[in-house]
Amino acid sequence: MPQEINTISLGGVNCYLIKTGDGSYVMVDTGFRMQRSSIEKELEKAGCKPGNLKLIVITHGDSDHTGNAAYLRRKYAAKIALHPGESEVVESGNMSLSRYRQPFLSRMILSLFRLSKSDRFKPDVYVDDGDDLSAYGFDSKVLHIPGHSKGSIGILTAGSAPSAGLGQVLFCGDMLVNTNKPALNTLIDDPSAAHASFEKLKSLEIQTVYPGHGKPFLMEVLWEDRL
User: Fold this and answer.
1) Cα(93)–Cα(122) distance, rounded to whole angstroms?
2) Are 113 and 95 spatial neighbours (Cβ–Cβ below 8 Å)?
3) What is the domain partition of the chain in residue ranges?
4) How far apart are CA 15 and CA 131, in angstroms?
5) How close are the terminal C-alpha atoms of the chain, in Å?
6) For residue 194, which phi and psi values (nearest 5 degrees)?
7) Cβ–Cβ < 8 Å for 29, 210
8) What number is the average pLDDT over the span 24-51?
9) How far is CA 145 from CA 45, 79, 112, 129, 171, in A?
10) What is the Cα–Cα distance from 84 to 125, expressed in whole angstroms?
11) Three-state SS for 48?
12) Which end of the chain, N or C, is less surrounded by CB atoms within 10 Å?
């Protein structure tokens, strides 16, 4: 179970550094490239050093979540985990490749945020729904929650974080946001997939959500608002 969750919030984008029970670290998402120095300072402050960052989990291939993955892998000797549906994105730098719908305006916007060649990468580990991450000291499982993109995933912890008094925690990527209030992301590529993913989350005992954008929130607040 996670012992400590550090939220690294920079420019409206969140990535998370989780200290595990064995003293190693797992990172969820990595922010934009231009945030690199700030992220490194946060990792250093948390006690994360080269050799003890075991895994970087990428929730989806957008550059605001993947911009530092390749760099951090090189510096910290970490492995990168990603859903196969996002692999083309991070290998080519083209975010539109994980989307089914390609309106002209969307293509134009996505083209402005391509990964640079030096920041593109091939994952070390491909993960899919139900995969267990406990081999990396992180007692959690992968949830495939497409909708924002076809290979979007979340990470659901198996237990609580004692220091924070939390129940099950979900790192949801861009499936859910809390920029104004807890909500389903309005930037959806596949509405039917997003609805199915939302129903999947409803069936789980999630207490606290850590989104890619906005502050963490209690899942019950979202359910109450939807009702």
Assistant:
1) 11
2) yes
3) 4-226
4) 21
5) 31
6) -65, -40
7) no
8) 96
9) 32, 22, 25, 8, 11
10) 9
11) coil
12) C
Taking the C-alpha atoms of residue 97 and residue 107, their distance in angstroms, rounded to an integer, is 10
Task: Give the whole-angstrom CA distance, residue 184 versus residue 194.
Answer: 9
d(CA 19, CA 53): 9
d(CA 86, CA 49) in angstroms, rounded, equals 28
Q: What is the pTM of this model?
A: 0.92
- Cβ–Cβ under 8 Å, residues 171 and 59: yes
Both tokens assigned to 1: 């179970």
Convert the pLDDT of each residue in 103-150 to its tens digit: 545 555 555 567 889 999 999 999 999 999 999 999 999 999 999 999
Residue with tokens 């959690």: 140
CB proximity list for 17: less than 8 A, separation 6 or greater: 5, 6, 8, 25, 26, 27, 42, 43, 46, 48
4-226 CATH: 3.60.15.10
Bridge partners of residue 154, in order along the sequence: 143
Amino acid at 33: R
